[in-house]
Amino acid sequence: MAISQYTARLSEKTQLNETYIFLRFELLSPDRIDFSAGQYLLLNTPTTPQKRQYSIVSAPRLDHAIELLVEVIPNGQASGYLNSLAIGDEVTFYAPAGEFFIKPEVIQSDEPLVFIGTGSGLAPLRAMILDLLRTKECKRPIRLYWGMRHAKDLFWLEAFEELKSNFPNFSYHITISQPEEEWTLCKGHVTNCLSLHGIPENASYYICGSPHMIEDVMKVLTSLGVDAAHQHHEKFTV
Question: Where does the pLDDT of residue 201 fall: very low under 50, low under 70, confident under 90, or very high at 90 and above?
Fold first, then answer.
């Protein structure tokens, strides 16, 4: 799929919590997009000459629009620009880009798939999971590990519960690195949660988050005997 320039109009903007926003852009020109779940776009912003990468959080079957999960960084030029947009505002971007997606030979196998993310690293993982469950009707075990600092930072929990209810092969675990006393689920980093729940045999792993987090996860997976060829990652930087 060749990278093309797109123009799109903001049609939905939701404040998920104090830090994260959800944006939906309807495509204007071209009015359709073909991409693989896990890929990203390169956003043009008036605040910086550099294009900013944002993973597409929607699944490919939504081909007339793209959805983004944005962590609004204090004094962040790109995230600040996106946060300032009003319904009806237009943006331009280039897409699709990136090699962080599930290859056809993996999709055709029956091995378990494990997705590990922190913060906005959830974005490409969500796209992959939705594509596997709803579009490809995948029946293999699919497990998500998602880490955040505080419980108040969490969002989309009802959506994950709905997926778990509708698709018995899907499960997820949330870990909080700075939990309150009342938090009863996984505590610490996602590596702690991995060690607690164990890992399935012969699985492929898709990891997205900060470079430090990815290095830690890969060290743990390697120590547990997971071959490097089964560890796929996308590093997020601010």
Answer: confident
CATH of 104-235, one of 3.90.180.10, 2.60.120.10, 3.40.50.150, 3.40.50.80: 3.40.50.80
- Digit-coded pLDDT (tens) for 95-118: 999 999 999 888 888 899 999 999
Position 235 pLDDT exceeds 80 = no
Angle between helices 211-223 and 190-197 (to 10 degrees): 20
Q: pTM for the full model?
A: 0.94
Q: How far apart are CA 144 and CA 114, in angstroms?
A: 6
Quick: pLDDT tens for 69-83. 999 999 999 999 999
> Where do we find the tokens 């018995």?
168
Tokens of 102: 């599930």
* CB of 87 closer than 8 Å to CB of 11: yes
Distance CA 155, CA 80 (A): 20
The domain ranges of the chain are: 4-97, 104-235
Give me the torsion for CA of 92, 98, 101, 105, rounded to 10°.
130
Q: Which CATH superfamily is domain 4-97 in?
A: Translation factors (2.40.30.10)
Measured CA to CA, the distance from residue 144 to residue 57 in angstroms comes to: 15
Q: Which residue carries 């900013």 as its tokens?
A: 52
